[in-house]
Amino acid sequence: MEPIAIVGIDCRFPGAQDTRAYWDLLMRSGDGVGEVPRLRWDAKEFHSAAGAEGHTNTTEGGFVSDPDAFDNEFFTISPREAAAMDPQQRLLLQCAWRAVEDSGLPPQRLAGSATGVFVGIMGNEWAQLHLTDYDNVTAQIGSGNGYCMTANRISYHLDLKGPSLAIDTACSSSLVAVHLAANALLSEECDVAIAGGVNIALTPALSIFYTQAGLSSPDGRCKPFSSEADGIGRGEGVGVVVLRRLKDAVADGQRVYAVIRGTAVNQDGRSNGITAPNRWAQQDVLAAAYRRAGVEASDVAFTEGHGTGTALGDMMEIKALGHHHAARGGKPMALGSVKGNLGHTEGAAGIAGLIKVALSLHHKVVPASRFAAKENAKLKLRDHGLRLLKAPLKLGGDAVVAGLSSFGMGGTNAHAVLESAPVHAARPAPRPAPEDGGIGSAVFTLTAPSVAALRRNLLAQADTAATRRVPVGPLSWSSNHVKAGHRYRFAVSASDTAELVAKLRAAADDPDLLARLTGTPTGRPRTAFLFTGQGSQYAGMTAGLHRDSALYRGFLDEADDALLPHTGKSVRDLLLGGDEDVHLTRWTQPALFAVGYALGRTLEALGVRPDLLLGHSVGEFATACLSGALPLHSAARLIAARGELMQELPEGGGMLAVRAGREDLESRVAEEPLVGIAAVNGPLASVLSGDLTVLERIEDGLRRDGVRTRRLKVSHAFHSPLMGPMLERFSEIAGEVGGGVPELPVYSSVRGRALADGEAMDAAYWVAHVSSPVLFADAAGEVLADGATHLVEIGPSPVLTTLIRRFGGTPPGAGPAQIAPVRGADSGGQDLSDALAALYRGGVDPHWDAAYGTQERVPQQLAPYAFSDDHRYWAAHIPTRGGAAPRTARPVAVQEPEQQHTAEESRSEPTGVLTLTRGQDDDPVALAVQAAVGQVGGYSGEDLVPQLRLYEDLGFDSVMIMELKNRLEERLTGIGQLTVQDLLPRLSSVGDLVSFLCEQGAAVPGHAVSGHEERTA
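== Type I polyketide synthase ==
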C-alpha cells in the first residue's frame, strides 16, 4: 500500500502528561501504576484479596492525573455543557488540538477541509453514571455522551468535513481506528486524518469483570511475557496522531516521525470462546499486514506486542509471532509491550503502542521492556525467533521496519507495519521560498484566546526553548506557522534563543510589557506607506539593514542596477561607504529613491501590502514605483535626471521653516516672485523657499511678529521659482519617460489629495512636482480621514510620522500606529523585525517565509498548547457498593481551593473577550436575562456583562437557545410567546437581547428579582 506518514503526535498516559514525558517514561522503564484515585471510586470498599463476587482483587491501576480539568473557555463550551461531557470527549479535544499543532499546522487552517477523525473507544462509563439518572437527563447530558461524540466533538470544534467515526472493537479499537484512517487517506476520502484512542476508568465495573474472569493482576500491573505475569492491570490514557500520505507530507515539508507501511484487521470468528484469543487469526492478521506492507517477516526488527500479561494471551501471541519468525535463526526479533509501564489502556492500547513504535523509529532506539528480566521460560521465546528487550535497542540503518499488534477481547485483531521515515523526511530540508529571504532578527509569535492563556503559553514556550539547542530562526519560523489564529497576537523579535527566552519570560511577568507586545485586531488593517523626502538623508543610511537583511540587499541591488546607467556610479556603494557626497543633490535624490524603493519592496515581499501611499517630495518617486504608475527603470532615469539638473542650478537659494500656517504666509509671498511656499507640513509647519535676500527680509518680519523660524541647511531653493531654469530639459526627459495611472491609492503631495480614478502620474505631473509646494499636511489629513490604521515610514529615519504626531486632534496613544522599519544611523535588522512584529500585532498576516533564510525555514517542535486547568468537571457521584448511580447524581463543576484565585482571574477575561467594565445596572429585566442565560449556560450572573456574545463567547447553540426562550418566558411578562425566530436576529450579545426584550415591553412581575436567588435557582 502507499505509505502513510505520522506527522503529529500528542498523548497523556499514566505518569506522562505529554509526548516528551511519555518517551522519558519508556526510556527509564518507568512505572505509571499506583493506587486508584479517590476521584474514581473507593478502591478499598470494592477490594477483596480473594476476589470475592462483586469485588476486585486489586486497589492499583494506571491512572492519568487531573482528568477532570478542562479548558472549556478555549473551545467556547459553556460550563454547563462541559460538566455534562464525558471526560473522554474533553481529553480528546485537547489532545487532538495539540497533535495538529505538532504536525506543523495551526488547527484553524484545517477548518472547512475534508479532514477525517477516527477514534477508538471501548468505555462509556460516564453514560452509565448519568443517563440512568432519569430526573436529571438534559440535552447537554445527551450530547455529552455516546461513542460517536468522541469523534464528532473534534470534527465540530475544528470544523472538519471529512469522515468522523468512533470505533469499538474493545482492546484493538484505536489501532483499528488508525487502520480505517489510513484507508481513508489511500482512497482519497481525506487528505489529513486525525486518529486516536481514549480510555478513562470511572467505575470499578471492568476491574470486577477482570477479577471474576480470572484475568486481573493482584498488584494492578501487566507483566508481559514475564514469569511473574499474573493478569491484567487496568490503565488509562489518550493519544492522537495526525496522518497524511507520505508524498503529501514530504511535499509540504512536514516532519515525519515514522511511516505506516501496511495495516490489516481480521476476526477470530467462532473459536474456543468469544473472549479467548485465537492463535490462527493472529498469525493471519500478521501475514496480511506484512503482505500489504510489502515486507518479509525477517525484515521486521522489533514488534510492539499486545502483551497483556495473561497466561493464555501471552502464549497465543508468541505462537502466532513464532509462526512467522521462528526461522530467523541467530537474529531473533525484539519484542516488548508498553502495558508493562502503563497497564492495559483498553480502548487506547493500540494508540499507546503506535506512539511508542513511532517514537522509537524517530529516536532510533527501542526502550527496554519492564519485567523482561524475568522472561517466561514456558513461552520458549528463542524457539519462536523472539527475544525480550532487557536494555534499549539502538536501531541502525536508514530503513528500520517494526510491527505493532492490538487484539480485541471480542476477537477483532489488528496489526500494523511501520518503517522509519525516509532520510529526506525524518529531518525535512528547508521549506523552499521563491527567493532566499531573511531580515536579520527572528520574529517569534504566539496567539491565544485570552491574556491569561497568552501568559501561560509564553512561559510554556520559554521553558521548552530554554532546554533545547535550537537556533532562534527555526523556532520563530515554526511559531509563525503553527501558533496562529487566536484573537490575542503576541510578537517579539530576538537575535538568539537566549534573548528570546528572556523576552518571553519578561512579557509573562510584566502585564504592561505584555500589553505593549500584544495586539487584538478587530478587522483588516489599513496600512499607509509614507515615503520620506529630501533632508532625511545621512551618510551610511541603511548600511546596518543591508548588512543584516538578505531580503533588503536584493532589492537595493535591484534599485542600484536600474540607477547605474544614469548616475555613472553605484548609489549602493555610496551608501555603504558612508560617503558624505550623499548630501549633494545629484546623489541625495537617487539615494533616497533607492532606499525607499528597496525598503518598500522588502515590506511587500514580507506580505505587508500598502492600502494607501503617500510620498513627501522626492519620496513620491518610490511611491509611483510601488503603485505601478512608473516601472523601476523609468523612475530611476527620472529621479537621476532630476537630481543632476537641480545640482547644476546656481547656488544662492535657501529654505526657511516657519511655525505658521499656509494662510498666514500667502500674503507675505504674494508680491515676491523669487520666493514661494515650498511645503505645508502641518497646521503650523510650513517652509518658504527662494532667493536668500528676499527670505532674509521675510524672516525679519516674521520674527518681529513673534513667529518662530529656522533656516534649513540646503544647497538649493527646492520647490521654488528658482527651479525654473531646469524645467525645460526635465520636461523633455519626463515626456520620454511618461507615467501611468496608479494601481493603488496614491495621496499626492502635489495635489494635496488622493489622485482621482484615471488621474495619471505622467510627464505633466512630474514637471509640476519640481516647483509646486509639497502639500503634505493636506494629503496626510486625507490618509487619516480614510481610515489608515498603521503609518509605516519608508525612509532612513522617522520624519513624516513625527510631523503627523504634531497635527493634534487625537489623545495620546490614539490614532494610527506609527511604525519605522529604519530608525536612524544605527538601525539594522532588529528594527525591521520590530516593525514586522508590530504590524502582525495590528492584524497584518505576513509572508513569514520571506523573513527567514533558507536554513531557518525548517519545522521545529514547539511546546504544545498549554490548556488551563482552572476549571474542573466531574461526576457528583463516586461509585459505591450500592451499585447504580443514585437519582441525585449529576455532573458538577469542581472548584478546588488552591485554584480559586486563578479561576477568579480567568473569569475576568471569559472566552477570549477583552476584560470589560461592568456597569452598575440594576434593571430588573437585565438581571432576569442574566439569570436565564446563566442558568442555561452554567455561568454565574456576575460574569455575564452586556458585551458578551452568546455564540462566540458563551458557547450557545440551537438547543440552548430553545431552553433560553423557555427560561425567559418563565421570568418575564409582557413578551407574549417568544419564538426562536424572534430571538435569533437579536442574539449577538447579552446586551442586545436585553434591549430587544425591553422593546417588546418585557417586565419582571413585582420587580422583585433577587440576583442571588436567580443565580442559585
